[in-house]
Write a structure and sequence with these properties.
Layout (H helix, E strand, L loop, with lengths): L1 H6 L3 E3 L7 H5 L3 E3 L6 H7 L7 H15 L1 H10 L11 H68 L1
């Protein structure tokens, strides 16, 4: 903190107290009990600012208190939703692990289903192969009967 005081950089504490109260009493530290910081304190605890007007009011108060550039920087860090709605890297990685697990499970199920389909295709192919000779044997007499009818029709005609 002493380095910050030497550099002339104000500190912003988003809690109700600070370890070094003298920094607040000297004006180098803004502590969360100040009204301008209430919306930021709510955000740091998972709540969110419900309207753009609240965000605008906060930006205006921060701009008056800290200056334009620090206020803009700080507002970029405040999510438009509550911190509870912001995904952390660990959350995204955990979802990735879960999704990869589900995909592996589905891939296994799909491979099983494909194996069952292949087995059914082999069974149907064998049945067709078994029926084909019978069908041919049934078709030969039918072909002779049709040929006989055609010859009779030609002789009569």
């Amino acid at each position: 903190m002493a380095a910050l005081l030497v550099l002339g950089v104000a500190c912003l504490t988003l809690r109700e107290n600070t370890e070094r109260p003298i920094t607040a009493s000297e004006g180098n530290n803004r502590v969360g009990r100040e009204p301008v910081l209430f919306p930021l304190c709510r955000c740091s605890r998972g709540a969110h600012m419900s309207t753009e007007a609240e965000r605008g009011d906060l930006f205006g108060a921060l701009e008056r208190s800290l200056g334009a550039v620090p206020a803009a920087t700080l507002m970029e860090l405040v999510p438009p939703v509550g911190w509870g709605d912001v995904a952390r890297r660990a959350d995204v990685e955990a979802q990735g692990v879960a999704l990869r697990g589900e995909m592996a499970e589905l891939r296994g199920e799909l491979k099983g289903e494909m194996a069952e389909l292949r087995a059914e295709i082999v069974t149907l192919s064998a049945r067709i192969d078994g029926l084909l000779p019978r069908q041919l044997l049934a078709d030969v007499p039918l072909a002779f009967a049709v040929a006989g009818l055609v010859l009779a029709a030609v002789k009569l005609g």
